[in-house]
Write a structure and sequence with these properties.
single chain; alpha/beta; Rossmann fold; Arc Repressor Mutant, subunit A; 10 helices; about 15% strand
Length: about 220
């Protein structure tokens, strides 16, 4: 796949360039801030050479606050066919939920520590480039640290919560079945039960799967 990288850490950026090259992927550009990232993508779009995916840090120059996030949101609006994998040093709830609120297809959010787990990083990148979601399990876990006493989520069984957690990470039914060592029909049964307990009726124009994940993340 063709990838564009954006991270102000030269060490991490060059390390990712080398890693992706060794895995047979093409790094079309590697830049240090959000403005450069958008400029590279504009040029690529004009030449009909858009990348399959972008890897972008949340905090980059000049303010080191949310430049990367704003670039990611802009990319999603202007070039929705480009997968976006966001990297962050910490779990930042607002950023993670903002990425999920509109459309989670082709979007991922990983902690930078996950990058050293090469297989997991490459898997996440490949998933977002193919239009799937990829959310770090630790991101999901921390987003769920809240009371559920009066929440319908509290009515879910332990297995249903496991299935929904896997859904929140962007896994398909088939992948969930493999990861939880159950049949795919069992996964489908649990998902239908989740929809019923969360009172998510089938409505045209809305994905019950996305709505369930958003409810799970507390948005």
């Amino acid at each position: 796949m063709r990838v564009v990288l954006a991270d102000d850490s030269t060490l991490l950026r060059e390390g990712l360039v080398r890693l992706l090259a060794e895995e047979g992927h093409e790094v079309a550009a590697a830049v240090g801030d959000g403005d450069q990232l958008i400029a590279v993508l504009e040029q690529a779009a004009e030449q009909d050479e858009k990348p399959d995916a972008v890897v972008v840090d949340v905090r980059m120059p000049p303010t080191h606050t949310d430049e990367g996030l704003r670039a990611a949101v802009q990319i999603r609006e202007r070039w929705p066919d480009i997968g976006v994998l966001v990297l962050s040093q910490y779990v930042e709830r607002r950023y993670a939920t903002e990425l999920l609120t509109d459309d989670s297809e082709g979007v991922g959010y990983l902690l930078k520590d996950r990058v050293v787990q090469v297989d997991e990083f490459l898997d996440a990148l490949e998933r977002v480039s193919s239009g799937q979601a990829a959310f770090d399990p630790e991101v999901v876990r921390q987003l769920l640290m809240r009371s559920r006493r009066s929440d319908p989520l509290g009515t879910l069984t332990a297995r249903e919560q496991e299935v929904l957690r896997e859904m929140a990470q962007g896994h398909t039914n088939a992948a969930i079945a493999v990861r939880l060592h159950i049949s795919q029909s069992a996964v489908e049964k649990h998902i239908n039960a989740i929809f019923d307990k969360l009172d998510l009726i089938s409505t045209s124009g809305y994905s019950r799967r996305v709505l369930a994940v958003l409810r799970y993340l507390g948005t």
